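Quick start: read one record
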Amino acid sequence: MTASTEPVIGHTYTSLKESKISLIIPVFNQARKVSYSVEKIKQAVELSFANYELIVVNDGSTDNTLTILKDIAMTDEEHVRVISYTPNRGEGYAVRQGVLNSQGDAVILLDGDLDISPDLIIDYVEMLSTSDLVIASKRHPQSNVRIPRSRAFLSRAFNLIIKQTLSIAQTDTQAGFKVGKGDIMRKIFRNITVHRYAFDVEFLAIASMLQLKVQEMPVIMKIDRKFKIKEIMNMLLDVTRIWYNFRIAHRYQNIYQDIQKEEEVSNSVAS
């Protein structure tokens, strides 16, 4: 999946520990645990970062989630922002809204149900000193993963399909913990079209086309629920659309060219 031998963005690495950090947390019908989840994530962030924003995106919840989120934001207006809309549009749409409204030098995507531990946030952000994007991988040898066997099997099968159809090199596309430099994340998510299940795949397809350096990291994960048949079918439909955009419509190649033009204009103005 290569349009050129030269990356158009990325590959300039500095430490981001003193920079502003944006965390994007999508939630849907999590009234019973969202308060606890947000507090745990804040605690993990504040161990290492003073300058941060936590953007919680309420993806059309039909329970009391929004009311709880508003109360949380009122008690910490400096750090917590809430984005909300109806109806439910999918995790990909929610994450996109959060990223495009972020201001951080580093942007972190983290599922709001705490299936993934936030304790490794500092390790992921520090890795941006040598990478453009850092993603969690269940198959990293240092990962601590407890999930149903059926889920593990289907995850491996799904990633094999991704590797064969889209030539994405990463071993795990779906783990809900990803970190990237803010300007890069916002450029990628301006071009994300998948609103629900496989937006992570499109994210990495675009990153591959832009020739970004992606580092896979260990993850601490515990998930008890199994995949539903409907979820699997919808993910495969999303992948089919991504395959079409890549192989037939050449949409991602066009994104490369558009960003290249943006960079040329920006550089000419700066000089």
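The first strand starts at residue 21 and ends at 27.
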